[in-house]
Amino acid sequence: MIETPATVVAVKPGVAWVEAVRQSACGSCGSAGSCGTSVVAKLFGAPRRRLRIEDAQGLRVGEQVVIGIPDGTLVRASFVAYLIPLVLLIAAAGLATHLGAGEGSVALIGIGGLGIGLWLSGRLTGGRSARERYRPVLVRRRASADVQMPF
């Protein structure tokens, strides 16, 4: 389970909206102080993201929680979102090159392959109706000793 701390910002019956600080790509780099991502975060503040989670525990606004998603879910979503469109872009451009198309045609056919890859990735993930599958879940409430600032 990949976990991150969050703060409850709104509550409705059975549902809570939480705000989590978006961390840098790795979050554990030894040179975080000189990293370009770190510099941008220091200048503009850490970006925050609001997420909806199921609330069966009766959360309150301002409460600190830990949310998470299963490891396999992240890997599958990354594979579908990034690898499939990229492979189809390269395959379409490669096929066009092999068939002797000009540079402009190769570029357009490659973009067409990218478009097909994006469409296919949307179909494979179930589109908008499958967002529940990728929604984070409430792992636990955070105890005061459990509080860590994500930088």
3D architecture notes:
The protein has 151 residues and is α+β, with helices and mostly antiparallel strands. The chain has one domain (2-146). The chain is 40% helix and 24% strand. The protein contains 3 helices and 5 strands; from the N terminus they run ββαββααβ. It has helices at 36-44, 71-98, 103-125, and strands spanning 2-12, 15-21, 48-54, 64-69, 137-141. Strands 3-2-1-4-5 form a 5-stranded antiparallel β-sheet. The model has no long low-confidence stretch (mean pLDDT 79).
Q: Top keywords for this entry?
A:
3 helices, single chain, alpha+beta, elongated, 151 residues, 24% strand, 40% helix, five-stranded antiparallel beta sheet
| Overall shape | elongated
The average pLDDT score comes to 79
Tell me about the largest β-sheet: 5 strands, antiparallel
The proportion of residues in beta strands is 15-25%
* Estimated helix fraction: 25-40%
Helices, by number, come to 3
Into how many domains do the coordinates divide? 1
**Which stretches of 5+ consecutive residues score pLDDT under 50?**
none
Find the count of extended strands (DSSP E, 2+ residues).
Answer: 5
Indicate the radius of gyration in whole angstroms: 21 Å
Q: Please write the string of helix (H) and strand (E) elements.
A: EEHEEHHE
Oligomer: single chain
The structural class is alpha+beta
